[in-house]
Amino acid sequence: MIEIKGLTKSFHSNTVLDDINLTIQTGEVVAIIGPSGSGKSTFLRCLDFLETPEAGTIRIDQFEINATSASKAQIRTFRQYSAMVFQQFNLFRRKTALENVMEGLIVVKKISKTKAQEIALQQLEKVGLSDRTNHYPRQLSGGQQQRVAIARALAMNPSILLFDEPTSALDPELVGEVLETIRAAAQEGNTMILVSHEMNFVKKVASRVLFLDGGKIIEDGTPKEVFDTPKHERTKEFLRRFNEYQQIEYNL
């Protein structure tokens, strides 16, 4: 279980996250939607302490960390409970797909090279890349690179997976293979927080949807509740504009 209390983050005078309180149960797939600049990516980065919140506590399983008093050692330990998949893949260019997946297991989890290789091969097989284990990132398509990044995250066996717009850097024809990989991981019972503009995918995969705007969660419900009967006017406006944009794209 993940429990977030009073999470607050500002950049200069701009409050990006404003006293966020949230509980996520084990096995939930939580999608965060909202306009650009609403704090979605910052929220994920604060959960992994890639950005340091000004206030708040985060508890994952039995480990709790306080933003105002966290030591570097506590942050290192805390990061072992989560794994993030970024927009830009963030693979090591001079390491093969296999070596990229093995790296965290060896360096962070202190697993032997032999065991790390076994786990990495299993995860690469899961994401359909058994035939690309010895390929370097430059030899892989964007979709394949992102699937390596997902395999790397899954290999760490985290309590929660964090996805920050995992398809935004991909050509449209490559989006499907990455979304299918995420869907398969969700079906295995992984706890996830997913930031995405792929609304149709969110509807199918998420068990819960949050609408974030102005640094606050202003809508929280099932996909059906949020998309079909949103309660807040700001959510209605956002979805209406999104649907209008989709219709324009379709007509073009």
Radius of gyration of CA atoms, rounded to a whole number:
18 Å
Average the pLDDT over all residues and give the rounded result.
Answer: 92
- In what order do the strands lie side by side in the largest sheet? 6-7-8-3-9-10
Q: What's the main sheet like?
A: 6 strands, mixed
Helix content range of the residues, please? 40-55%
Work out the number of β strands: 10
Instruction: Give the termini separation.
Output: 44 Å
Helix and strand string, N-terminal first? EEEHEEHEHHHEHEHEEHH
Q: How much of the sequence is in beta strands? A: 15-25%
- What's the domain count? 2
| Poorly predicted segments | none
CATH C-level class of the largest domain is Alpha Beta
| CATH homologous superfamily classification of the largest domain | P-loop containing nucleotide triphosphate hydrolases
Number of discrete helical segments: 9
Q: Based on the coordinates given, report the CATH architecture of the largest domain.
A: 3-Layer(aba) Sandwich
In the CATH hierarchy, the third-tier topology of the largest domain is known as Rossmann fold
Outline, from the CA principal axes? Answer: globular
**Which structural class fits the helix and strand makeup?**
alpha/beta
